[in-house]
């Protein structure tokens, strides 16, 4: 049961930043190369997300990527724990869809209320990383 809950957290995190969950899982048991690659990719995503030309996370391609990365992260987490990866991957993908919608609404809410976009994005980053690292811990 805890694996399913952790998979849902990974999915929600991927809804916020698609590479947060894979990076967190890699740091929990991946090779040095995998840790470096996922950390670099996640850092790049954190920067690109703040740029004005960043695509909507709800567009087909970015949303599909979030679901795939969430499923992969949960699958690797399950394998690391010697469990079947199918249910965790499906739960994570579903949670990523919900996390994507919630994150998009959060950012739209902040913008509509004339908040600075950067503080709202940084708050989302903090929540995303907290969820991902909490879920990926052994």
Detailed description of the structure:
The chain is mainly α and 138 residues long. Helices cover 78% and strands 0% of the residues. It contains six helices and no strands. Helix 2 runs antiparallel to helix 3. The radius of gyration is 14 Å and the shape is globular.
Question: Short description, anyone?
Answer:
This protein has 138 residues and is mainly alpha-helical. The protein is built from six helices and no strands.
Strand content: under 5%
Mean pLDDT: 93
Distinct helical segment count: 6
* Low-pLDDT sequence parts: none
Helix content: over 70%
- Secondary-structure class: mainly alpha
Which features would summarize this protein structure in a list?
single chain; 138 residues; mainly alpha; 6 helices; 0% strand
């Amino acid at each position: 049961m805890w694996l399913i809950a952790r998979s849902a957290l990974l999915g929600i995190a991927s809804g916020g930043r698609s590479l947060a969950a894979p990076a967190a899982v890699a740091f929990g048991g991946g090779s040095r190369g995998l840790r470096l690659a996922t950390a670099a990719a996640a850092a790049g995503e954190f920067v690109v997300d703040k740029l004005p030309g960043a695509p909507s996370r709800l567009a087909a391609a970015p949303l599909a990527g979030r679901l795939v990365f969430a499923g992969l992260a949960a699958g690797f987490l399950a394998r690391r724990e010697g469990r079947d990866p199918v249910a965790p991957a499906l739960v994570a993908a579903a949670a990523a869809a919900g996390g994507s919608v919630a994150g998009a609404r959060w950012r739209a809410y902040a913008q509509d209320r004339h908040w600075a976009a950067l503080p709202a994005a940084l708050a989302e980053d903090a929540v995303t990383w907290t969820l991902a690292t909490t879920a990926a811990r052994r």
